[in-house]
Amino acid sequence: MSEAVQTSSSFTPRVFSGIQPSGGLTLGNYLGAMKRFVDTQETGVQSIYCMVDLHAITVWQDPENLRRATRELCAGYIASGLDPKKSILFNQSQVPEHTQLAWIFNCVARMGWMQRMTQWKDKAGKNSQNASLGLFAYPALMAADILVYHATHVPVGEDQKQHVELTRDIAAKFNHDYGVDFFPMAEPVIEGAATRVMSLRDGTKKMSKSDPSDASRINLTDDADTIAKKIRKAKTDPEALPSEAKGLEDRAEARNLVNIYAALSEQSVDAVLADVGGKQFSEFKPMLAELAVEKLAPISTEMSRLMQEPAEIDKILADGAERARAIAAPILKETYRIVGMVG
Ligand code: AQP
Questions:
Q1: Of all atoms in ligand 1, which is nearest to the CA of residue 206?
Q2: The pTM is what?
Q3: Rounded to an integer, what distance in angstroms lies between the CA atom of residue 140 and that of residue 144?
Q4: Distance between CA 203 and CA 183 in Å, rounded?
Q5: Residue 192: left if φ>0, alpha if ψ -120 to 50, beta else—which one?
Q6: Residue 17 β-bridge partners
Q7: What 3-state class would DSSP assign to 198?
Q8: Which end of the chain is less crowded, N or C, counting CB atoms within 10 A of the terminal residue's CB?
Q9: Which of 16, 17, 20 gets mutated to test ligand 1 (max ligand atoms within 8 A of its CB)?
Q10: Annotated catalytic, 315?
């Protein structure tokens, strides 16, 4: 067995997370994931961030758009502050160990577990017989993404918590079935004021890159005028803002805008409300628009610059894939040995 592989419950802290190149990046991806990846990188813990292109094709992706979105996501990671020398950045399809381990996990996970997943129910909808088999098995591939690195911490938005919990169930069943302590119980890390950024048009729906309405989201590539316009048109209620978080409880749209402001300005919701309590949205929305433009414009500019150099991006991804494989290959090899594969 390789010395690089740990088999006891004292796993070295290691962070893994991913984003699908399934369209343009949103403010939800930025606040719920990317901004927090950057914070984690600065702690010095080994961090591995993936463009999960194999997840993206669980629903139809035009090949040319997928290629572009993968490079744009890599540009977005770097423009947000990830340093490809400090963190490992790569695309999932370049590290075949993910799909190899996912097959083993397909044989560990139970159909009933997958059927309970909220994302499956939301995305497959009423026409589940027509959804891809990949969409159903998505959480087993996600478990493999995490566990093929023996990752211990997974920074995600609120919507992915259930999948990380399923990853723990898969790890526990594998360890139990084979009588080993091989896979760690990865922890979801869900922190900050914007773990669930909601649609600007409907405070009960998550802001999502695949929402048919572009007005529902802020894209990281939106220019200043577009950001200001979308915030101006965001759905709100006629009341003034409260002075305490409790006053936002039944006001989904107001809560969403305040949460976004808090996350962008790195303040608590209470601190924001202490400042803006009593203001009308006609006054608060321009403040939010100004802050959003101030924080997002440099990211958008840097993304555009990086996108002019696709060969440079491809080099970063190839280098990341090589470093990722160096960690994943011995873990997969040991998994095969535990399962009883000869060779
Ligand atoms: N609205 C959100 N608020 C907070 N976090 C969010 N994330 C996504 N949307 C929000 C977090 O971003 C990471 C990557 O997500 P993903 O793109 O891989 O998948 P997703 O959660 O399904 O995001 P989308 O935008 O809704 O993509 P589509 O439309 O393609 O399904 C995750 O950590 C997620 O929590």
A1: 1
A2: 0.93
A3: 6
A4: 38
A5: left
A6: 49
A7: strand
A8: C
A9: 20
A10: no
